[in-house]
Each structure stands twice: as structure tokens, then as C-alpha cells.
Amino acid sequence: MFKNILIPVDLAHEEQFSRLMAAAVLLIGSNKAQIDLLYVDQSLIHQGSYPYLDNKTYAEHKKDATERLEYLIQTVAPAHVTCVTHIRQGAAHDHIIEEAKLQQSDAILMMAKRPGIASYFLGNTAEKVVRHADCSVFVIRDQ
């Protein structure tokens, strides 16, 4: 069983969180464990929204993301599981892999969308994480 699981959370799809948490609880079993929840804000990657995100706006955005993660923990996470939130800015796959190393995660548990034509050319986040992560990666297919 696993003792430290990283769950990347897409706040645009909060409805997926209960499936992720249920799977994490199965992977943890009866172990005392920690679940690290990671939200990666990708809004500045293409710089299109850059003029609209000054430091104050970004701080508010980060605060909102933290509050939303805390709400998900309070409503879905079992009491015996320790959850810690992390917010990063940039490319999701890079930060997921980096955070797993920083937190010494022994598993990453994440959702994946059904592949579309674009993913055949560019790949998707889950695929990149599976290829490059140093720990086990469990992918739950979106329905």
C-alpha cells in the first residue's frame, strides 16, 4: 500500500475529485497516509491573459484556488487522511512530476480525458506524467 499520494486536481472539473479520493483511499488501505493535492494554474503559459493578471489579481486567483481545494477536502476527504494543498504556476505535467519528487510521493493518481485528435500529435498531461514520473502513476479514465 501507499503512504504518500499526489493528486493533481483540475478545478475546472471538481466533480472528478470524489472519484480520485475514493481511489486514493483504496490505494492507502489502512495505512496512515498523506495526500498532496496539487493545482497547477496554467493561465500564464500562453501569455494571452498576462495583461489581466497583475500581482494582486494573481494573489486573489491563488487564494480562490486554495479555498476551493480546502472545500473539496472538507466535503470529500475521509477524516483519517491528512491532505495538504499545493498551488503552482506553469505547465501541469512539469509541476506534477516536480511536486511528486519534492513530496517524495510513492504514487500519483490522476484523471485523463479520452484522447482526441490533438493528443495524437501533442500528447496529453497524463501521458507525459506516466512517461517521466519516478513513482507509480495511476490514471483514471474520464467517463
UniProtKB/TrEMBL annotation:
Residues 1-141 form the UspA domain. It comes from Neptunomonas qingdaonensis. InterPro entries: Rossmann-like_a/b/a_fold, Universal_stress_UspA, UspA. This is Universal stress protein F. It holds the Pfam family Usp. Belongs to the universal stress protein A family.
